[in-house]
Specification:
single chain, 175 residues, alpha/beta, 7 helices, 6 strands, globular
Length: 175
């Protein structure tokens, strides 16, 4: 049963696709009577939709010193991923001009805000004046949902006390 006290990026995507689907996800007992919304892919399937061949190679070419934080699935894994992300950020590994020149980044950084919103950021890269947040998209263009996602990430990072230099999309062209 999904947690109703914490919000996540999946909640935002579910709501963006269909507010009723989001409500039904939060109230599984009502799902049996619903016929309005088509089934949405689960989290694992959604991740496969955004990643295709060459995604890892493209990231490694841009960020040779990137560190990966595995995708959390349980509350305990979320807590561990958030703790690891905060430790990586606190030690200053991503801060300063040397970090940017070395191509340092956290892939799959997990953070939470004081309001209880949990997010997994595709790429948090070093910037000269702060962190740079990127949505990885296996496409040639972004859409409004990508803007919503990056805005949510920015809110959570800023509420966590970190400085954000910039945000954007990392597009991987299938051709």
């Amino acid at each position: 049963m999904p947690s109703t006290d914490l919000l996540s990026q999946d909640d935002l995507q579910r709501w963006r696709a269909c507010p009723r689907a989001h409500w039904l996800h939060q109230h599984p007992q009502a799902r049996a009577h619903a016929t309005h919304c088509q089934a949405l892919p689960d989290e694992a399937d959604a991740l496969l939709l955004d990643q295709g061949p060459g995604a890892e190679q493209a990231l490694r070419a841009s960020y040779p010193e990137a560190r990966l934080i595995p995708t959390p699935h349980t509350d305990a894994e979320w807590d561990a991923a958030i703790a690891r992300t905060q430790a990586e950020l606190a030690q200053g590994w991503l801060l300063g001009p040397q970090a940017q020149e070395a191509g340092r980044a956290l892939i799959g950084a997990c953070l939470h805000s004081k309001e209880g919103v949990r997010v997994r950021i595709d790429v948090v890269a070093a910037g000269r004046l702060g962190l740079r947040l990127f949505k990885l998209k296996y496409a040639t263009v972004g859409d409004e949902a990508d803007v919503d996602t990056v805005a949510l990430w920015t809110h959570v990072v800023l509420r966590g006390g970190w400085r954000v230099q910039g945000t954007g999309l990392l597009l991987i062209d299938a051709d």
